[in-house]
Amino acid sequence: MLQTAPNIAYLKAAWAAFAGISGANAKQSYEAAGLSFTRINHSTLVRKNDVQVSTMPIHYTRHELRVGFLGRIENEVRKAAFEMDAVFYRDLELPEGHRLVIELEECLRLLRRRGNRTLSILIEPDGSAPLDAAVQVEMRVFLDAPRACVFACAADASGQVDLLDGASKRARMPRASGYAELAQQISATLNEAFASLPRAQMAA
């Protein structure tokens, strides 16, 4: 079920397994990539170190193995996005006239095509009314571990202000033990930035 929490240990292992046989490592041996295989009945269990990262039929190609990794990763990414969306809905205080956009389908398209590892989450004007100042936020969430880069600015007729100017590196590049905790940290950082929005506009 998508409502279950993403398996962080699996994500780390699956991305490492995928990287071990892709790109510059496309011709690397399975052993060198740290992969092991166990045949059980009509299936092959694939492990990266001690974590099972895929289940394949008896016969498969290297390409099919990579696709299998990405398919399982996609399921975990959907869980992570769902989990973060629920936290943002509960905790994030959006400025009036703005909306939250999780670019999940674009992320998954790029994941399937070339193993993209980031999910963009945006806050932008919703177009419902003219705004004295528009806020633009991008949260670049990494999919191999609960971490992100956060960018936030406000723009009005007099210019643009970095809403995270002076924020700590931990606030701009948060890390957490899970994606719900990551969303909580980001929400707290952005809520504080949004609370200073009138002052930031005057400073512009």
Q: Please, could you describe this protein's structure?
A:
The chain has 204 residues and is of the alpha+beta class. It folds into 2 domains: 8-76, no CATH class; 82-203. Helix content is 40%, strand content 27%. It has a 5-stranded antiparallel sheet. β7 (147-156) and β8 form a beta hairpin. The model is unreliable at 199-204 (pLDDT under 50).
Instruction: Tell me what portion of residues adopts beta-strand conformation.
Output: 25-35%
Sheet of most strands: 5 strands, antiparallel
Radius of gyration: 20 Å
The sequence of SSEs as H and E is HEEEHEHEEEEHHH
User: Gap between N and C termini, in Å?
Assistant: 47 Å
Portion of residues within helices: 40-55%
Report the structural category. alpha+beta
How many β-strand runs?
A: 8
In DSSP terms (H or I, runs of 4 or more residues), the helix count works out at 6
Q: Low-confidence stretches at least 5 residues in length (pLDDT < 50)? A: 199-204
- Mean pLDDT, to the nearest integer, reads 90
Query: Strand order within the widest sheet?
Result: 4-5-6-7-8
How many domain regions?
A: 2
Globular, elongated, flat, extended or rod-shaped: what is the shape? elongated
Short description:
With 204 residues, the protein is α+β, with helices and mostly antiparallel strands.
Keywords:
2 domains; alpha+beta; 5-stranded antiparallel β-sheet; 3-stranded antiparallel β-sheet; 8 strands; 6 helices; 204 residues; single chain; disordered C terminus
